[in-house]
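General statements about sequence and structure are easier to judge against a single worked case. For one protein, we set the task of working out the structure tokens from the amino acid sequence alone. The sequence in question and its structure tokens are set out directly beneath this paragraph.
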Amino acid sequence: MHFGSVSKSVNAAVLVAVGYVAAQMLADITSLKIIVFAGFSMDAGTLVYPFTFTLRDMVHKVAGIGVARLLIFAAAAVNLLMAGLFRLVAWLPADMQVGPQEEFSAVLSPVWRIVFASIVAEVVAELVDGETYQAWVKRVGSRFQWMRVLTSNSVSIPLDSAIFCFMAFGGVLSSAVVLSIFYSNVIVKGVVTLVSLPWIYVVKEKGG
């Protein structure tokens, strides 16, 4: 029973961590396009990225804050490597027997300002999310698990949105568009938080 319990815990941690990194990567790729969503200007990565906050909380719950911190930096490294690989592939000459293949560069060659803004925002906000989550657990314990997610996300979401929006688009887009992106980020991330709150009950507490 003991080994089975440990195995399930490890499996849960691995699956949630993979989901976290995948969501981070997809968000960074799709952030390269600005869309109109419900009347707001918004980077398309916001459709995916908000799930990472609850996924991080799930990793925190099942594996502890140390693993959650490591995952944050690992995801940042993976995203930086991904952006570098896309840039390298875009730079390498195309096989003209196939064609110029300019679509790859047009879509996936990263805008480095957006890449760095995204990674800085992710690392800072996710670390703050972790500390807020940890403080709640120490103060309240295992009760009201949905509230620990809501509390940590309510701190990290505005912080993440502010860092990303103003680093990535400040001085490039008009102030009205930047503010629209910021507000849409906060609103969509808040809605996703409410939708994903029950996920915290899917995994067991570390040591539980």
